[in-house]
Amino acid sequence: MNLLSVSHLCVNFHIKKQELVALIDISFTLNRGERIAIVGESGAGKSILGFSIVNLIGKPGYIKSGSIKLENKELSTMNLRQLQEVRGKRIAMIFQDPMMTLNPVITIGDQLVETIRSHTNISYKDARSIAIEKLHHVQIASPEKRFDQYPHELSGGMRQRVIIASVLLLNPDIIIADEPTTALDVTIQAEILQLLLAICRDNGVALILISHDLGVVSKVAERTLVMYAGHIVEEGPTLEIINDPQHPYTQGLLNALPQMTLPGQRLNQIQGSMPSLAERPSGCAFHPRCPYATQKCRQEQPRFIYSGVSSVACFLVEDMLNECAEHDQEAM
């Protein structure tokens, strides 16, 4: 049985009598201990998908249809009390900015202890011991000292380690990490990613890493989902997607990485920008930015097809596979 199953998920926003579609027919699974990544530019729907999994989509957004199951439990229809048994205990979330997560006027220790005691009946003393143990686990020096400090007294990397410690307090099955290294410098980014990877490996925790950077993803995730304008456009093993990207959008993301250009050259970029929810194009949503777009791309939505070990929604790839199949048949 899959630990997490998302099937045909659709999320809408009802704004000024308009129905704006944010996620369209999203389906994927996550096994216990597996590490997957959700990749795409800002506005692709990555964070909305992460919030949807733990049913944190607030009005005017709502889950229109589809299923989100944690083992055999449907999350999308749970009430608040039922969700409180899942959030933190079964599925924990790391947000982009730790200063938005940590309360600036409460000490680190009191925030960690409050998290533990809100889900258990243990004493303050025992909760304090667990909190200090988790701070030590995420390689925070002098955890007893940090326990009594306020968030502003810690560096950005240290605050992110505190957030990781907080999600470990209740031993969750799944961690959703939404751009966990965005505000950190490159050296600290690498440390945080290695820490997350080690924690997941050592504890058998499944990870959903949300990122715009395929370079970051390549170091952590076993499998990658590429999102564009609310759709998954490509899915497969991370190394396969990086070494042999099928969808033109995935190719564009890879070519835009700084290491893909020589020193002194302009960085590559995908022409145009992500469409807004109110201006979603017809057919394949990527066609206005795609150098290979045809009339069919402008009119029809491509279906998922298998290309090697990956799945991709692209008419170009579909046509190439059909041509190869016809050639092979003629050769026989």
Automatic annotation (TrEMBL):
Catalysis performed (reactions): a dipeptide(out) + ATP + H2O = a dipeptide(in) + ADP + phosphate + H(+)
Principal location class: membrane
GO molecular function annotation: ATP binding; ATP hydrolysis activity
GO CC, alphabetical: plasma membrane
PANTHER family for this protein: DIPEPTIDE TRANSPORT ATP-BINDING PROTEIN DPPD, OLIGOPEPTIDE TRANSPORT ATP-BINDING PROTEIN APPD
Family: Belongs to the ABC transporter superfamily.
Record's protein name: ABC-type dipeptide transporter
Species classification: Bacteria, Pseudomonadati, Pseudomonadota, Gammaproteobacteria, Oceanospirillales
